[in-house]
Amino acid sequence: MSETAFRQGKKRFFDNKKFPRGFAKSGDFTLAEENLLTLYGETMLGLESGELQSANAEEQHFLSVLANPEAAESKIERVWMKYVRLARGRKRFHTLNGRSKPDVSEDYTEDEPSLTEED
């Protein structure tokens, strides 16, 4: 992993509410992204909530990225923006039903023999 001035959290970061099986097993994050979230997630959450103050330029830039997500440069900043979007954004809902309804004007019973007729 590249050298970073970003502080690691005092404990590993998990989100059991939105990702109960873990970040990587959710299918949304790679193993590398899961590693970044678990190592630095507590610090990023603390900086975002205001519980922690930035200790260096990298953490200060992270605070500016929170206001402007397009400015994310580092992997840590990009993975946090991805986490925020997936954990706090609207959940996509996919259905198997289509919007178009079948045309009921056709009568399919004309070609079928009647069940009441005896041969």
Verbal overview:
The protein has 119 residues and is mostly helical. The chain has a domain at 24-88. It is built from three helices and no strands. It has helices spanning 31-49, 57-67, 75-88. Helix 1 (31-49) crosses helix 3. The longest helix is centred in the middle third of the chain and has 19 residues, at 31-49. The termini are far apart. The model has no long low-confidence stretch (mean pLDDT 80).
**Percent helix among the residues?**
25-40%
Main pleated-sheet profile: none
Rg (CA only): 26 Å
- The count of helical stretches stands at 3
Q: Globular, elongated, flat, extended or rod-shaped: what is the shape?
A: elongated
Features:
119 residues, mainly alpha, 37% helix, Macrodomain Ori protein, DUF413
Topology:
Elements: H1 31-49, H2 57-67, H3 75-88
Helix pairs in contact: 1-3
Pfam family, one: DUF413
Protein name: Macrodomain Ori protein
InterPro entries: DUF413
